[in-house]
């Protein structure tokens, strides 16, 4: 019996570590009419995104986030280097069938309602009518638009439009979802709802690549992030590791008297304190981001740190 239990655990670990997206020395240079270099949008990017994780691409405007995503979607071709999605070229039709994409601006038919919109995109994937109908129902329920499913999209607010855009991106039940600035233009409630939906996708085993300049958004949902600046990778790693202040220690406790606090952990344990936590404190993603940008501008071409996966 013991050997039977060990095998599934090994398989799960292997599946969790499966690389879904890989870039090797990926470079994109935009040229003018005469072939002269105009903009180096991306320089020698090396990344790996693993199955089941939420991976964030963070950077200011012009940092290479959108270029990276378009290269991975096969919408642009690299100047040099290679991008692989599911181990294949991003332009492969078989690869595209396993992908969902929410652009920064959703281009939807304004005179269709939510149900008609999702039915239309389901037909593009040649989904059988009964499967399509169930998928449409589930997605409308998931994004919380049941009450407005028969309203034309031209009547939708920005938040509602983003939610139906996400539903459209998920109509084919993709394994990998690209979300480009998913919280742009949303109010705080809409942002929270969008983040909850992204976390729900992870719970379902989906792999999510999300770009954002909203620092707190990625801090709340991403497992790992890559920070890009001027087309170069400046930092890469787990969010908790990147935000940890390694040379400081903080102690947190609940229900402890003032006298007990002075004696630190030994007294706290003897006093049966609740929720004792001795750990490295963290900075914020915003502070980390700004420091990396400042260092990058002061010392161009130098990466701020190593991969803290």
TrEMBL record:
Q: Which residues form the ABC transporter domain?
A: 21-255
Q: Per the record, a Pfam family?
A: ABC_tran
Q: What's in the keyword line of the UniProt record?
A: ATP-binding, Nucleotide-binding, Transport
Native species? Bremerella volcania
* Gene3D superfamilies assigned: P-loop containing nucleotide triphosphate hydrolases (3.40.50.300)
Which InterPro entries does the UniProt record give? Answer: AAA+_ATPase (IPR003593), ABC_transporter-like_ATP-bd (IPR003439), ABC_Transporter_VariousFunc (IPR051782), P-loop_NTPase (IPR027417)
Q: Does the keyword Nucleotide-binding apply?
A: yes
Any single GO molecular-function term of the entry would be: ATP binding
Protein name according to UniProt: Putative ABC transporter ATP-binding protein YbhF
- What PROSITE patterns does the entry give? ABC_TRANSPORTER_2
């Amino acid at each position: 019996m013991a050997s039977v239990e060990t095998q599934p655990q090994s398989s799960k670990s292997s599946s969790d570590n499966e690389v879904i997206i890989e870039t090797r020395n990926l470079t994109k240079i935009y040229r003018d009419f005469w072939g002269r270099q105009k903009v180096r949008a991306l320089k020698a990017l090396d990344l790996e995104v693993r199955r089941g994780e939420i991976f964030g691409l963070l950077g200011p405007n012009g940092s290479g986030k959108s270029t990276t995503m378009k290269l991975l979607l096969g919408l642009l071709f690299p100047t040099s280097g290679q991008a692989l999605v599911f181990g294949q070229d991003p332009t492969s039709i078989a690869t595209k069938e396993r992908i969902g994409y929410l652009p920064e601006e959703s281009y939807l038919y304004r005179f269709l309602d939510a149900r008609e919109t999702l039915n239309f995109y389901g037909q593009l994937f040649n989904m059988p009518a009964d499967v399509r109908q169930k998928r449409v129902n589930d997605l409308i329920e998931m994004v919380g638009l049941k009450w407005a499913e028969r309203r034309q999209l031209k009547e939708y607010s920005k938040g509602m439009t983003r939610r139906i855009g996400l539903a459209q991106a998920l109509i084919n039940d993709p394994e990998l979802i690209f979300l480009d600035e998913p919280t742009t233009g949303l109010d705080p409630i809409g942002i929270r709802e969008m983040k909850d939906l992204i976390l729900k996708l992870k719970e379902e085993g989906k792999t999510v690549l999300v770009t954002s300049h909203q620092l707190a958004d990625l801090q709340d949902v991403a497992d790992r992030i890559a920070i890009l600046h001027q087309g170069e990778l400046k930092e890469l790693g787990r969010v908790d590791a990147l935000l940890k202040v390694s040379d400081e220690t903080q102690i947190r406790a609940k229900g402890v008297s003032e006298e007990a606090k002075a004696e630190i952990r030994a007294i706290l344990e003897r006093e049966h304190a609740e929720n004792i936590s001795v750990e490295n404190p963290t900075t914020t993603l915003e502070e980390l981001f700004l420091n990396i940008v400042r260092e990058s501008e002061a010392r161009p071409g130098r990466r701020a740190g190593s991969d803290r996966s």
